[in-house]
Design brief:
- It contains 11 helices and 10 strands.
- The radius of gyration is 24 Å and the shape is globular.
- Strands 5, 6, 7, 8, 9 and 10 form a 6-stranded mixed sheet that branches. The chain has a 4-stranded parallel sheet with strand order 2-1-3-4, sandwiched between helices.
- The longest helix has 25 residues.
- It is of the alpha/beta class.
- Helix 5 packs antiparallel against helix 6 and helix 6 packs parallel to helix 11.
- Helix 2 links the parallel strand 1 and strand 2.
- It folds into 2 domains: 83 residues, Rossmann fold (3-Layer(aba) Sandwich); 130 residues, Nitrogenase molybdenum iron protein domain (Rossmann fold, 3-Layer(aba) Sandwich), CATH 3.40.50.
Length: 294
């Protein structure tokens, strides 16, 4: 009987160990908390600082500008020009890379460095990434609070514009300043399209199953948007301020131009799928439905 009891106890103990290991895998608990993080993705850099892991970041991409603390950190290239030697010299225990940087990821793996691969998508992708980063960096509670805060702010915007007419909107995120050449607009998938929908607009390219569209002048005329929201990176618009109001005059028959509903929104945060995503969505909503925010 004693032998059977001991065997039963051993089996129960083994079951608890297996259960604990499974729970650990399910929760994505990292093997160790990284203390030296290199981020090549500006959106992820913002997330790291927002969840409280900023002190663990030792280098960022050449395009990082926010939060202000990153300006004093070493720059190690970006998507197409990562400085691999400098990254390795920093002895990182976690390197954040774009999903398309497979060669860099393999090289880092061979050198024994952990990587966190990122591909942007919709709003859910952003929120899930924040959660995953919280777990990976030892800041799970802070990440959870941040996600809840973003979701709550998005819900506020939804409530503000609920029941209001949804104007047909063309969301522009890139073009040559002063001209209507090389125009890029949001397609029907991705975080920009989802932000526009929450803000109370109807994307004129909603049926296009791509994140971006490069419409011709003829296409823009045919789509006849009632509102044009143009997102511009800070510092670009100021270079040609006098020419910007005239650029859209070439499409004077477009309802948005005719009714003076072309809105130029300036700021890097408008095109970064990170912690400031809710603020950007509110900016869209204020332009589309100013009466809802009086």
């Amino acid at each position: 009987m004693a032998a059977r009891a001991q065997k039963l106890i051993a089996l129960v103990a083994l079951a608890f160990i297996v259960f604990a290991l499974a729970a650990r895998a399910q929760d994505k608990v990292p093997v160790s908390v990284p203390r030296r993080i290199v981020s090549l993705v500006p959106a992820i850099t913002e997330m790291l600082f927002a969840v409280g892991a900023g002190s663990q970041v030792v280098a960022v991409s050449s395009h990082d500008e926010f939060p202000p603390e990153v300006k004093t950190l070493p720059k190690v290239g970006a998507l197409i020009d990562p400085d691999t030697e400098r990254i390795l010299a920093l002895r990182p225990d976690l390197v954040v890379v774009y999903g398309s940087q497979s060669d860099l990821e393999k090289q880092l793996g061979r050198a024994g460095h952990r990587t966190f691969s990122y591909r942007h998508g919709g709003i859910a992708t952003t929120l899930n990434t924040i959660r995953d980063l919280g777990v990976a960096t030892g800041h799970r509670p802070e990440a959870g609070k941040l996600v809840s805060s973003i979701q709550a702010r998005l819900d506020v915007v939804r409530d503000r514009v609920k029941g209001r007419p949804q104007p047909r909107t063309m969301l522009i995120f890139e073009r040559q300043p002063g001209t209507l050449r090389e125009v890029y607009a949001s397609g029907g998938v991705g975080f920009l399209n989802e932000m526009l929908t929450i803000a109370g607009g109807r994307n004129v390219f909603a049926e296009v199953s791509r994140e971006s569209v490069q419409p011709s002048t003829e296409t823009m005329l045919a789509r006849a948007p009632e509102v044009i929201l143009e997102l511009r990176v800070a510092g670009v618009v100021e270079k040609t301020p006098s020419r910007e109001p005239d650029a859209w005059s070439a499409l004077s028959s477009v309802p948005a131009v005719r009714s003076h509903r072309v809105h130029l929104l300036t700021g890097d945060y408008l095109v970064v799928p990170g912690p400031r995503l809710a603020a950007a969505t509110e900016a869209f909503a204020r332009a589309l439905h100013p009466d809802a925010f009086k």
